[in-house]
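Record 1 of the preview.
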Amino acid sequence: MNKLAKVTSILSMSFVTTLHAASFGSYDLVSKSDFPSDGYIPPEYVSFQGTERTIGKTIGICTDTHSRRVPGKIVDGSCFVEWDGKEYKNDEFFILRSSSGYRWTSVNQENKNFILNAGVTPGTTDEGNYVYHCRIWDPQNNIYTAGKYIPSRNGCYFALYGANFRSEKHAFLEVLTVGSPSQY
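->
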């Protein structure tokens, strides 16, 4: 059993009623040394099979340890976040614990209200809205990765190759949510 499986949960919140009733996830504080060298992410944490730099990877969902708590992705044991136009690598970070209620919800006009009310966020705000965990699939550029969704800009921002990118119009966007749109 690796150290990652033994980490104690240090942050657990449910729902909050300020701004929108966004869902705060439960995170564990970990460091790169807690991961095996192959980048394996145990099933008790949120992850998916994605593409990073054209290579298939298991990508986990994280936030940095800075007070701003930026949503990001875990690749090869480090958490990468996009902030102010740059990519930042974090070797100590918060990793999102799995929950049976989590699901990826497509970003479209029909689901906008649901995402604002049920999207999973570490509590970060931008332009008066929570910033949510998102993933983007861009088949034209062979990208399937995670980042942060900013509702007021209707885009998923992600870091790659040391720079930041915003989702293109042809890309498919999803936000991590709790529950299903039919509940709203």
